């Protein structure tokens, strides 16, 4: 349900700021365009904050200005472009900013009050925050501190609650599926096991949807810890049936039974970086099956390129809805897809719990019924 946290009249907004935070995702520019055009119709000036909130928060790093004027002319022709014209960052959250302490050590410090002050001193009356769980958690804190703010759910990982889907996910799944199609022919020609790692953090949505669509033989997701003896047995069985090759899709957050996911690094002010899951699975499968095995990491390729038609449309709808929400006096909410409509949900609810793959959901059941090994 919509939550009106403020009753401010739309006419009191003169200057609206847009921020894109976290990892980029196809559709960011489409959201920006919709926000700018819809806000222009309200008579509001729009500025883009460079690199998350850094343009405001770290002005010294931007000698040319941390705010980019966003006019209808500036956002012309960007709907189909990947990336974000205002930049983004997934390092240095204002809620846990890496800061040098008096004793010389570094620590994560909540500096959100400074950001609130920066909004005021730059005449920013309202904010559209486009991001995933990290950015929307920041938005929720800012809303509680009185900032008039509406969130837009972005992430290729699709791990945000309270929206049927986030923008960027469909583009990532479509590209991953195309890659699996391509890997089939080389796997078959060489009679190899191809282990393909996809992003998704602690949720297996990309791996599951692309794996089923791309007819993988095994799909390993964080929600179902794997036993590689089961996967090796499934690969051997295929061999006996005259199919001496296999495609194994591994979510970057997949983990063995009783084990944990593979982490590359963890820096102050940033989430831990996952990686190495496919390499680990490939190495162990090679030992167990004695088959020639290769691993491929699709990684950031899933974040690049043009948004699919589906993502373009929901991005444009989300951007327009965010302005509509502000114009109607809402704040502290996220726009959310609830077909056939877009509604507003409190940011506190949207960020409370990560949306992971239910082990008994229809797509998991479908995978099992198609004979795909899920490693359990
Ligand atoms: O959250 C989006 C995401 O693409 C995750 O799937 C992935 O773990 C992470 O970002 C990678 O981020 P980075 O840009 O730091 O490599």
Strand percentage lies at: 15-25%
Order of helices and strands: EHEHEEEHEHEHEHEHEEEHEHEEHH
Helical/strand content category: alpha/beta
Task: Describe the main β-sheet briefly.
Answer: 7 strands, mixed
State the shape.
Answer: elongated
Average pLDDT, to the nearest integer? 95
Enumerate the spans where pLDDT stays under 50 for 5 or more consecutive residues.
1-7
The tally of strands reads 15
Computed CA radius of gyration, to the nearest angstrom: 22 Å
Distinct helical segment count: 11
Bound molecules: 6-O-phosphono-beta-D-fructofuranose
Instruction: Please give the order of strands in the largest beta sheet.
Output: 3-2-1-6-7-14-15
Measured as a percent range, the helix fraction is: 25-40%
Distance between the termini: 38 Å
Architecture overview:
The protein is built from 11 helices and 15 strands. The chain has 376 residues and is an alpha/beta fold. The strands form 4 sheets. A 7-stranded mixed β-sheet has the order 3-2-1-6-7-14-15, with helices on both faces. A 4-stranded parallel β-sheet has the order 9-10-8-13, sandwiched between helices. A hairpin with a 7-residue loop joins strand 11 (263-265) and strand 12 (273-274). Helix 1 packs parallel to helix 9 (309-327), helix 5 (169-190) packs across helix 6 (205-213) and helix 7 (228-240) packs across helix 8 (277-289). It starts with 14 loop residues before the first strand and ends in a 7-residue tail after the last helix. The model is unreliable at 1-7 (pLDDT under 50). 6-O-phosphono-beta-D-fructofuranose (F6P) is lined by residues 23, 90, 132, 155-157, 199-201, 252, 273-274, 303.
